[in-house]
Amino acid sequence: MSTSHKKEWYKDLDISLEGRPVGIDQVDDALPIGVCYCIISNDITVERVDVYKDCQKIHYKKFCYDDLGRVIENAMYSPDGNGGWHIIDDIWYYEYDPETGLRSKKTMKMLGASTAQEVLYDKDGLRISERTIFVVSGKIY
Known about the structure:
mainly beta
């Protein structure tokens, strides 16, 4: 069984309420000025998203999925200066309502930070609150 790789370019990126990486405002190729996103899919699953600024790759995002194919982790990588890549900036974690299947919570944690941002959603996927929470020994509280 072979897999088909597909690249699509967009001006912006989001994770849908249903847990799928989605592009916003499709473009033909990397933008000569500004930031854009290249979504790389393997069949129907997004493998990674390359982030470009002024036609130069500056980051990439990798996703972990649950058994239902929803994003549960979104980690951004940056160049390490030695030809490799390392996690930088932030990791987003997603949780879903067991009844509706829609996102119920997302948490953004910056590596090494003692706090994280948590956003809660109602059963219709509408944002109801945002707060700063504490991170102790890598665990979010």
